[in-house]
Amino acid sequence: MSSLNQALRAALDHRQDLLAELSLERDALLQLHEAINQHLDLNTLLVYNDRSRGNSRIDREDSVYRAEDAALEDMIGHEWGLNYRVRGRHAGQDPLLFLDLRNARGWVKDHSAGKSVLNLFAYTCGVGLSAAAGGASEVCNLDFAEGNLAVGRENGQLNPQLPKMQFIQSDYFAAIRQLAGLPIIQRRHKLPSYPRLEQRQYDLVLLDPPAWAKSAFGTVDLLRDYQSLLKPALLTTADNGVLICCNNLAKVSMDDWREQVLRCAEKAGRPVRDWQVLTPGSDFPSMDQQPPLKTLILQL
Ligand SMILES: C[S@@+](CC[C@H](N)C(=O)[O-])C[C@H]1O[C@@H](n2cnc3c(N)ncnc32)[C@H](O)[C@@H]1O
Fold this sequence. Notes:
Elements: H1 3-14, H2 16-22, H3 26-40, H4 69-72, E1 75-79, E2 82-86, H5 102-110, E3 116-120, H6 126-133, E4 138-143, H7 146-157, E5 166-169, H8 172-179, E6 202-207, E7 212-215, E8 218-221, H9 227-235, E9 237-247, H10 254-267, E10 274-278, E11 294-299
Parallel strand pairs: 3-4, 3-6, 4-5, 6-9
Antiparallel strand pairs: 1-2, 7-8, 9-11, 10-11
Helix pairs in contact: 5-6, 8-9, 9-10
Bound molecules: S-adenosylmethionine.
Residues 98, 101, 121, 123, 126-127, 143-145, 148, 171-172, 208, 210, 213, 215, 220 line the site of S-adenosylmethionine (SAM).
């Protein structure tokens, strides 16, 4: 067994009790649903997406776990006056809109008038949509997952009053290094094909990467190497522009990460003139005042 397999097995063994508790039993699920309906005075539709699979003790044949057709239909959610695609169940694991980023979307909507905006790791393009609603002169959404960009396109169509956005399906490193005028790093293997882009800068750039992801072009690793994500994003931000960067790793403290970010900017020749912390909304309380999602607004 490889060491990775061994580590994974040990990690799962340590979580056996927890995993058993994570499956909601039928009655507990129905009670929860009832309590939410009562509290909100609404008749909400129930969709239970159980991720525990092989470890689950629940009887999946019970119709409670199969959502009603109406609950699985495409719906529209609203935030800051915009429409978003909502699906109770879809191919991915995460909801189609990350709600802890709501304040960042609000900030972008308030600060993008007349700006060119680049939305990196765009997912379903909520930040791009907010920029378009805020009067951006152009909005470009970049992500390597066509399925996520497809939802971004739907979100655009759900807000027909807004100007059209651009979508680039590309690996982050391949795209950002071209935009920044840096060479694309060739590792051992031949690189997959990638869209060619001209070097250029944007007035407002959002960098909200996942905690970890590996591709032929590089590794996204927020714990060990935030710099290789940040440096090209800094170079792609215009003079007097704004770079909003995020780190969703709970174990990284804001103070340590901010130091790292400011040092990286200094070294890249793009020193930060001013910075501001943006915290998630009150529906994401943090007992220790250290919210897992950290957001810094950097004025370059
Ligand atoms: C945590 S989500 C980002 C959330 C997003 N910023 C938002 O506003 O909701 C991570 C996204 O990064 C994309 N992604 C991961 N690795 C990538 C890479 N190497 N290049 C481009 N996109 C990547 C995934 O497809 C996914 O859409």
